[in-house]
Amino acid sequence: DLYRKVFVFRKDPSDAFVVLRAPLEQPLHNFTVCLRSYTDLTRPHSLFSYATKAQDNEILLFKPRPEEYRFYVGGKFVTFRVPEGRRDWEHVCASWESATGVAEFWLNGKPWPRKGLQRGYTVGATAAILLGQEQDSFGGGFDLYNSFSGELTDVYLWDTGLSPDKMRAAFLSLRLPPALLAWNSLSYEVKGDVLVKPRLRE
């Protein structure tokens, strides 16, 4: 149980990452991914990377610069421009539904204007899911200058789009529906210089 704990990625740049294991039985037609990050990086970095053998950027949350997030589904992406952070924790949730291709992005409990992405696409189920690196091949192919350095916590993946109430609940760390990946029951393996430490403050 990682309650009130964080992954600390200590080095910059880094070859370290964390492998997450999710019980994926069928392809995803809808999903929501949420996580909380804390970093002073200004260079590009990957937050959440879900690759299949057919597509290395099947799901990717990527931050190319401090005032921009990119959300990839099936190798295509939409950009969400954000105020440059105050060097504080940032909570992001991104959700997508195949039927409409609508991509939602929430930052610190607030929704950004919705965008269209990969309508009718299906996300593959046999996946390598990593924190801290961006995959250019299945489970590997890292560019160290896209690596994450800092702290990550509250990582979740659902096979549904969350309602606005649940998006806000994720930001506030309230009770959430059962998830494929849930921070309080995470199946993970640390590869390299990543520590599990208590959160410094709430």
From TrEMBL:
This protein's UniProt keywords: Acute phase, Calcium, Disulfide bond, Metal-binding, Secreted, Signal
The cofactor required is: Ca(2+)
* Disulfide bond entries: C34-C93
Subunit annotation: Homopentamer. Pentaxin (or pentraxin) have a discoid arrangement of 5 non-covalently bound subunits.
The yes or no answer to whether the keyword Metal-binding is present is: yes
Name of the protein:
Pentraxin family member
**How cofactor binds (record note)?**
Binds 2 calcium ions per subunit.
Species this chain originates from:
Ploceus nigricollis
